[in-house]
Amino acid sequence: MARAKLTGTDYTPPDLVAKVTGRARYAEDFRADGMVFMKLLLSPMPHAHVRRIDKSRALAMDGVLAVVTAEDLPESDPLNEPLLASEALYEGQPIAAVVAVDEATAADAVERLQVDLEPLPFALDPIESIKPGGSNARTEGNTIVRKSTDDGVQTVVERIEWPNQLFRDAGEDVLPLGEHQDEWTIGGDVEAALAASELVIDETAYHQSLTHHPLEPRSAMAYWQNGKCTLHCSTQSCQRTHGVAAAAIGIDPADLTLISEFCGGGFGSKIVGTVNMALPAVLSKQVGRPVMHRVSRYEENYFGRARPGMYIRTRIGFSKEGKVKALDIFAIQDNGPYGRQGDLGSVGGVASLAYQPDSMRFRAVSILTNTPPRAPQRAPGGAPISAMLEPIMDRAAKQLGLDRIAIRKLNAPREGAKFGGDLSRNVTTAYTHEAMDQLAALVDWADADRRGGTRSGSKAIGTGFALAPYTAGASGFDGLMVIRPDGKLEIHSGVGNLGTHSFSDTSRVACDVLGLPWEEVEIVWGDTSKHLPWTTVSAGSMTTHSMSRAAHAAATDLMQKLQEIAARDLGGSPEQYEVDGGRVFRRGSASGGLTFAQAAKRAIELGGKYDGHELSENLHAATKVAAAAMAGQGLLGAAKDEYPRNGDVYTFVVGFAEVEVDLETGFLDIKRYAAVTDCGTVMNPRSLGAQLHGGGIQGFGLAASQKWVYDPRWGIPFAHRFYTARPPSILDVPLEMQWGAVDKPDPNNPVGSKGVGEPPLCAGAAALLCAIQNAVGEVDLRRLPIMTDNLLTAIEGLDPEVPVLTTHT
Amino acid sequence: MAIIHDMMPAFELYQPSDLDGAVQLLDRHGDDAWALAGGLDTMDWFKDRVKRPKVVVDLNGIPELKGVREGADGGLEIGALTSLTDVVSSPQVREKFPMLAEAAATVATPQIRNQGTLGGNLCQDTRCWYYRGGWPCYRAGGNICYADTSSSMNREHCIFGASRCVAVSPSDTATALLALDASMVIAGPRGERVVPAEEFFLGPGIDITRMTVLQPNEVLVAVRIPATFAGARTYFEKARDRQSWDFALASVASAFRMNGDTIAEARIALGAVAPTPLRAKKAEAALRGQRISSQVADAAGNAAVEGARPLRHNGYKVPLMRNLVRRAVRGGPLAGEGQDAAAGG
After folding, report:
1. Chain B residue with the nearest C-alpha to that of A112
2. Judged by CB atoms within 8 Å, which residues 42-71 of B form the interface with A?
3. How far is B240 from chain A, CA to nearest CA, in Å?
4. Nearest chain B Cα distance for residue A341, angstroms
5. Cα–Cα dist A562/A594, whole Å
6. Could you give the CA distance from residue B257 to residue A605 in angstroms, rounded to a whole number?
7. B53 vs B3, higher pLDDT
8. Terminus of chain A with fewer CB atoms < 10 Å: N or C?
9. What is the DSSP letter of B76?
10. Smallest CA–CA separation between A55 and chain B, in Å?
11. Listed residue (B251, B245, B237, B84) closest to B169, CA to CA
């Protein structure tokens, strides 16, 4: 175990001053000589074939340099999102691009394009599409399937259709259990287990598709020099975006420098950027000038990604003690128009982990719609299933006469818990009871529990408590760093900088291994020309766990090399040497030995493995290229993370919310929120608090304020600005917010850490919904978000305005 | 519909330094001109390229349009270009008509209130998302209301006063000023005219393409609030989905002149439920001469929503509006243990 000096303490990350003083440069802040601007023409129809776009009037304008449509670009696989569409699959999809000397001219030119579109039938709602006679989002069908053929596995579009009788038999507001694509089980016959249960709750719920809304839109600027392209873009992951962007531009990665030092939020929408970032590069090559594309908030709503909406029917059976005996989940995913989204898999996986059912069946189908392309959004799949099942756990507790925490403890996973289809997976650590106990003490649960459900005048008071797990780390990546002849440790981080500080938190692990003060470190990040190692994508709460392992491995490699150099020069064996405070010295005599600067110079003299001329075979090819470029610059540490990992790494967050619902106005006032996590060792307390609270607030939006609204006749959305989409504002956040952490290390990580990006959102959404239910009783929580109108409709006993099985209202 | 958004087209900008100059410019350019105050509503229209005037007359350089002054009768006159922040923080407004300060404080965000003006808040166009999206509806000169079909999305639309158009008045200060019986001072080529708030706002039955009586060559100069309701018992509440940067789902503004513990005169204005801010005259009549009680409050609330005609998605506005009026009479939410906090005044 490393000497923990920096890990676990607050600090000022190296990007922070630039951010808070406005000096941080995001993609659209860059300028290049002769730069010109690009504007897009977006499809005005939800599904249309582009018959013809007449460019002549636009091209005739002064200052217009190029007009490009799908016809001018290489043909792409129709199942993949193109740079520009010849068949628009959603209203707002880019179908033409104009480059002009300034944005005003480009916009005027876009207006002069003569567009001839052939409208095609469209589908906004998976339920409408799957019914007999329902429209297909794609001409060939409404779902994407992978098929084994004689030519190997092929991805094809097919139509899936459920008979009317199925809907009639299920009844209104109940999801029929029709033909599906995915199925897995745990234990024996789930129907028998349900039949044998003391209490069965059967519920259908609808969870919205939600735009990610990062504050920074995905603007991009590109230019070419000597046949090589430089691209400024906004991405969550730096090193891993490089190859994806090169492929989208159609060039060798060696010919691309990608720069993304700061990323103004992604939430899963910019894991490896998005295809739009390639267009300025392609057009820059064509016009021979740098091209900037500033993406507007309005455009961000269209091609800025969204969480897939989800219809979920859950049948859950409890023993009289409150143990989950049976869990049957059927989900329909609103897939958007392109590649099949993975959220569904997490719906089942998270549910099986969180509730440890004796018997479970998971079935699912993903239906294409003519709505914006989807991407994972913070806790994909986990957010809807936690938000749906946690209030159901409360209802079961009430009916069975149990305490709300007791029923959770009875079912919560502990260390090593198995989950997933056939219980084929297991988690590493799971300090769920410890987290629940800590939160219960923090909020004085006994008192909060009593307060919940009481009324004072028009105010109904509710308290809610929720547990949410989500995946939190992977392994097998590389660390790369060099001690320079000036004695500084230069850490090359391929991690993106999406605002979580994980790029520098993980670097501090290297300092702790070497006993080096933080001031002696420089982190190189955000620029693929600066030799970045093979790195995880910054998504799925992966970075902290995965890259602290890699940093630990590379720092350990450095330490060994320091010890070897010292032994070689000063006598004795490497084990007799210790590394601390920027020196390597014989154990027990800190005054002698070599400074890092001296060791770095010696490494260069020695060459070979010491200065990076010889590299370990097991490094990833990308790391080898990066390390080779650094060879000879100092004492090089480069290592692959080969630490053992005994299972899947999951982080757990428990949330507590207290609300007042105004029974006269339906106004939901969140009075208090607190969250406690088991995320292993706490790496950066202040940043952890920000994750727990920020994720919780994003969960409030999912539960109670954000939604898409579409006019179903025209297939056109309205919530495409912040004020109509309504993510929570700072005044919608309680003044009283607290957090805590169990802070017990996960032995599967050399410093004990687990990631914590996703589950704070699930805990926030679920705790809030539990609190609302606790305040106003069995109010209809089946269609999220629960806003003023839903609450007042329920309180007043009015008929709900739309059935549960309806999207985008 | 606009084919491209978020990029303002070019226009000619005039920045007159006095009111006469502004009126002359507007008169000269007629329908081609647009008067610019704080720009919050304006820039949205321009950037979305839906409204495209050739000429913009910026009123911000005209000193006489700004500031809060004592009115002749002991009331107040507030220049139309006074920022909402200045209205909120004005000692005179807070002393005489605190309800106006409360209403102005609920507009949008601090940044928007710093930039936005009282006149702009009153004259702003409706937020119907079909209309603002550039759909060719009645209000935009077309021949259909997209928001009032069997499949329309109209959660935020009207329950009163529909006439081909179902959009609502979005102004928070309009509701307060209607309850305070304010008048609007308007300058035009033929001089000044003063229009009571109740006549200033136009419903679609009178003119479907405008929200107010302002002609293209006229400027809203000031708002006059008579002394009538200075120090009166007032109430303002705005129901909305978010606590900042959100328009009202419904709002209520009320001003009661009390005679001992009975209501001598009541004015109640309803916001965001009709194409104009709306007097709740039946509720007002039901209150005259009454002592305040929860029964009276309930009756006034019921009277206020009599004749409401909700659309497919806004049925909730009926109980919401009813309850807000009840609160206006009571002086607040139903208090603890179901007791009536405001009983007895």
Report:
1. B3
2. 49
3. 8
4. 28
5. 9
6. 93
7. B53
8. N
9. E
10. 15
11. B251
The interaxial angle of helices A502-514 and A543-570, nearest 10 deg, is 30
Residue A807, SS3 per DSSP: coil
Structure tokens at A458: 């028009």
| DSSP string for residues in A450-463 | HHTT-EETTEEEEE
Residue of B nearest to A664 (CA): B323
Above 60 in pLDDT, residue A506? yes
Whether residues B5 and A299 touch (CB distance < 8 A) is answered with yes
Phi, psi of A540 (to 5 degrees): 60, 30
CA A574 vs CA A489, A584, A593: distances in Å = 21, 10, 12
For A709-738, b where at least 16 C-beta lie within 10 A, e where not — what string?
Answer: bbbbebbbbbbbbbbbbbbbbeebbbeebb
Amino acid, single-letter form, for residue A412: A
Q: Indicate the burial class of A642 (C-beta count within 10 angstroms; 0-12, 13-18, 19 or more).
A: exposed
User: How would you write A322-350 as a 3-class SS string?
Assistant: CCEEEEEEEEEEECCCCCCCCHHHHHHHH
- Give how far Cα A296 sits from Cα of A27, A38, A460, Å: 13, 12, 41
| Structure-token match 């809060």, residue found | B68
Provide the shortest C-alpha distance from residue A29 to chain B (in Å): 18
The answer to whether the CB of A718 falls within 8 A of the CB of A779 is no
Chain A CB contacts of B149 under 8 Å are: 713
Residue B338, pLDDT > 50, answer: no
Q: In sequence order, what DSSP letters do the residues of A95-126 get, joined into one string?
A: EEEEEESSHHHHHHHHHT-EEEEEE----S-H
Nearest to A130 by CA among A171, A88, A87, A175: A175
Q: Are B97 and B230 in contact (CB under 8 A)?
A: yes
CA distance A779 to B178: 37
**What interface predicted TM-score (ipTM) does this complex get?**
0.95
pLDDT in tens, A441-473: 999 999 999 999 999 999 999 999 999 999 999
How is residue A262 annotated by DSSP?
Answer: -
Q: Nearest to residue A30, comparing CAs of A487, A526, A505?
A: A526
Q: Quick check: B283 and B300 in contact, CB under 8 A?
A: yes
SS3 call for A432: helix
- Tell me, rounded to whole angstroms, the distance of Cα B264 from its chain centroid: 25
CB contact under 8 A, B316 and A792: yes
User: pLDDT tier at A589 (50, 70, 90 boundaries)?
Assistant: confident
CA distance B228 to A224: 71
Contacts with A456 from chain B: Cβ below 8 Å: 335-337
Half-sphere exposure of A240 (CA within 13 A, CB side): 20
Three-state SS for A573? coil
What is the Cα–Cα distance from A226 to B295, expressed in whole angstroms?
A: 83
- Local structure of B255: helix, strand or coil: strand
What average pLDDT does range A248-268 have in this prediction?
97
pLDDT for B275-333, tens place per residue? 999 999 999 999 999 999 999 999 999 999 999 999 999 999 999 999 999 999 999 99
In 3-state terms, what secondary structure has residue B138?
helix
Report residue B243 as tokens: 């606590």
Looking at the complex, does the CB of residue B333 fall below 8 Å from at least one CB of chain A?
A: yes
Of A630, A487, A613, A643, the residue nearest A552 (C-alpha): A643
pTM score: 0.97
- State CA B3 to chain mean position distance: 30
Inspect the interface and report whether the beta carbons of B316 and A458 lie closer than 8 Å: no
Contact A665 B320 (CB under 8 A): yes
Judged by DSSP in three states, B307 sits in coil
Report the pLDDT value the prediction gives residue B1, as an integer from 0 to 100. Answer: 62
How many CB atoms are located within 10 Å of the residue B90 CB?
20
